[in-house]
């Protein structure tokens, strides 16, 4: 059980995880008409992976709070969410590439279970990458959420619950199956993988997600009509 992370200084964390983050600064790229070539601008996931969004088209951001590029991408993730049609659903999938990332993934799922993930998403990025806050132990992470209204004792209990541990296990299983080796990556309906580098910038990721969501919707509608 990963309860104590004595070397979890933010500077060290960023150094350890630099290679796991996408090596790009695409957040300032100019918007352009979407280019949508499979194998170039986005990649097919083979085999396609199951989603957890029911009848809705799933859009997943594979991310980590420890990844500075994910912090840069967060405004674009918010834009994607705001533009999704009613037939699509946005969610996050924390990547776990090392012990430090696992601690933040555990915190994410705990905050989600407590209904405070959305309101603390940007705050956690700011704490790590803007304020350079040091999280030396999981207790430091619990304290952060306590400062944002969480019951710290309840947070600690849920963090090591079966529910959260099961979600961590699923994340470790799903990320490789999705072909993700860097963050942020966006997955559309378990079939398509997009990165800032492949799309040509973060604004283009937004446009490409819109295109692929509509593509999935149209193909489902056509298949249904053909039955």
Describe the protein's architecture and organization.
The chain is α+β, with helices and mostly antiparallel strands. It has one domain: Glutaredoxin. It is built from 9 helices and 5 strands. A 5-stranded mixed sheet has the order 1-5-4-2-3, with helices on both faces. Strand 2, helix 2 and strand 3 form a beta-alpha-beta unit. 41% of the residues are buried.
Give the secondary structure arrangement, pairings included:
Layout: H1 10-17, E1 43-44, E2 57-63, H2 68-83, E3 88-94, H3 99-113, H4 117-130, H5 138-147, H6 152-159, H7 162-177, E4 185-188, E5 192-195, H8 196-199, H9 202-225
Helix pairs in contact: 2-4, 2-9, 3-4, 3-5, 3-6, 3-7
Brief rundown of the structure:
The chain is α+β, with helices and mostly antiparallel strands and 227 residues long.
The number of strands is 5
Q: Residue share in helices?
A: 40-55%
CATH homolog superfamily:
Glutaredoxin
Please tell me the CATH architecture by its name.
3-Layer(aba) Sandwich
Write down the CATH topology: Glutaredoxin
**Strands of the largest sheet, in order across it?**
1-5-4-2-3
Instruction: Please indicate the count of domains.
Output: 1
Approximately how much beta-strand content do the residues carry? 5-15%
**Could you say which structural class the secondary elements and strand pairing correspond to?**
alpha+beta
Mean pLDDT: 89
The profile of the biggest β sheet is:
5 strands, mixed
Q: Regarding CATH, which class? A: Alpha Beta
> How would you spell out the order of helices and strands?
HEEHEHHHHHEEHH
In terms of per-residue confidence, which ranges show pLDDT below 50 for 5 or more consecutive residues?
1-18, 23-33
Over all CA atoms, what is the radius of gyration?
A: 18 Å
């Amino acid at each position: 059980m990963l309860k104590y992370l004595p070397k979890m200084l933010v500077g060290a964390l960023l150094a350890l995880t630099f290679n796991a983050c996408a090596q790009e600064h695409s957040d300032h790229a100019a918007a352009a008409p979407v280019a949508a070539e499979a194998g170039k601008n986005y990649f097919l996931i083979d085999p396609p992976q199951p989603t957890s969004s029911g009848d809705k088209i799933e859009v997943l951001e594979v991310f980590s709070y420890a990844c500075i590029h994910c912090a840069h991408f967060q405004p674009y993730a918010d834009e994607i969410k705001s533009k999704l049609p009613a037939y699509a659903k946005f969610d996050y999938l924390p990547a776990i590439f090392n012990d430090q990332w696992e601690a933040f993934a555990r915190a994410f799922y705990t905050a989600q279970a407590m209904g405070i993930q959305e309101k603390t998403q940007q705050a956690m990025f700011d704490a790590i990458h803007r304020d350079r806050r040091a999280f030396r132990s999981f207790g430091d992470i619990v304290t952060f959420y306590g400062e944002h209204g969480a019951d710290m004792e309840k947070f600690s209990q849920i963090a090591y619950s079966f529910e959260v541990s099961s979600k961590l296990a699923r994340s470790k299983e799903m990320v490789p199956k999705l072909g993700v080796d860097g963050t942020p990556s966006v997955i559309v309906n378990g079939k398509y993988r997009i990165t800032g580098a492949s799309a040509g910038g973060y604004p283009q990721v937004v446009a490409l997600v819109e295109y692929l969501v509509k593509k999935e919707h149209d193909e489902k509608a056509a298949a249904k009509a053909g039955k």
